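Incident log, structure service

09:12 report received: a user says their structure output differs between two submissions of the same chain.
09:20 pulled the input from the user's history:
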Amino acid sequence: MAYKAPKGWEAVIGLEIHAQLSTQTKLFSTDSTEFGCPANEATSAVSLGLPGALPSLNKLAVSHAMKAGLALGCEINTKSVFARKHYFYPDLPKGYQISQFDKPICENGSVEFYVGKTKKTVHIERAHLEEDAGKSTHHGGYSLINYNRSGVPLLEIVSGPNMHTPEEAAEYARTIRGILRYLEVCDGNLEEGSLRCDCNVSVRPVGEKTLRTRAEIKNVNSFRFVEKAIEYEIFRQVELYKAGDAPVQETRLYDSAKNRTQSMRAKEEAKDYRYFTDPDLLPVQIEESWLKKVKESLPELPIEKSKRFVTQYEIPEYDALILTGDLFLAHYFEEAAKITGDPKLVSNWIMGEMLRLLKENDLEVEKTPISSKNLADLLSLVQDSTVSGKIAKQVFKIMWETGGAAKDIVKDKNLAQISDPEEIKTLVMDVLKQNAEQVEQYKSGKDRMFGFFVGQIMKNSQGKANPEILNEVLKIELNNV
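09:34 re-ran on a clean worker, output below:
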């Protein structure tokens, strides 16, 4: 069900997207970043913050951050500085996080995307490098801490408060993820926590321009949950105002099982973190030659690819924007289009059947059980009239559920289209004999009866009669009776 804003109220939403950068080692140490290592094995004196351990900056992480910033339209600061951000959590062993504060590596960008067919632009205030914290898991009366993630390089991408609906926020997050995956600087794996969102939400009466107190929903790791968490928070805050109360500035967590947010802690402000320049790390100096090399390494980005799709494949702009929103989906489309030679047919099926089932099953596009080749094989059966479009949808659903090949399913289920004119003639004559009164009505000038006959014949053939041949045979036989 589509989101409907509380009457008279407007939400103001900003996202902080935390993207783990695809490096083999951590931001300030040579510890492995491999996901799934045995607990606390990917650690060292540096990532554990032991006395005397000194950080050493990962150059590839800086390069990845520059690449992402350029793709997001940001200005790249040729001098950036790391700072210590002080707060105590068990999964941050040093008692501070090395991050960037007043001099981040990327600033002042923007990203364009579509919500439905409405174009949106969101300002990106900054994108800065920082180290990830470890991970705590809670087990009733005790907690366990895994420091493997501590020190993994993060790029935190901070949007402006430019969004106003949960759908807009989720689509923005999808767009950012798509760009990062194009660049191959982040795998965007939401389940493994490679990409996480903090959602800043406040509400205000429609027409009011000032920003009211916001709540931050921490570490949301699903686009669907981004929508649900924000929607819940909007209505929670509106109800507080209506009751004569007001939200407090705090950090909240989203409970997906109960579909609600709950308070985690009071939200700190910048002054609470006591930022100061890290004395163990020199400023990052980016030479023009390095920046130029990174610019030249940028691949074809989604917006450029969508323009190419419109020109090369002659598909609508909206289709092209959807198909290029994810790198896997773009490759999937091009592979299937190459096999079938009919890009528009492929686009229609991806935009229709495939994306619908992905959404219904809450699956990422790369989890589709139907490969691009198998889709192309199905569409080839439509092209040569082996099956009708209607039957093809049945076959597609069976392919989705079983992983089977289109030709095998059509054969096993006896779904091949009837294209033999003589066999269709038999079907036509049976219907005409059974409906003599309707035949007389047709002959008296009621042309709409033609559709009635077609419907009856298709019903008797279980939808397998070739519509084109059926229409030709039916016209001939109606003239002969």
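09:41 both user submissions now match this output. Likely a transient worker issue. Closing.
09:42 reviewer note: The first strand starts at residue 9 and ends at 20. The radius of gyration is 29 Å.
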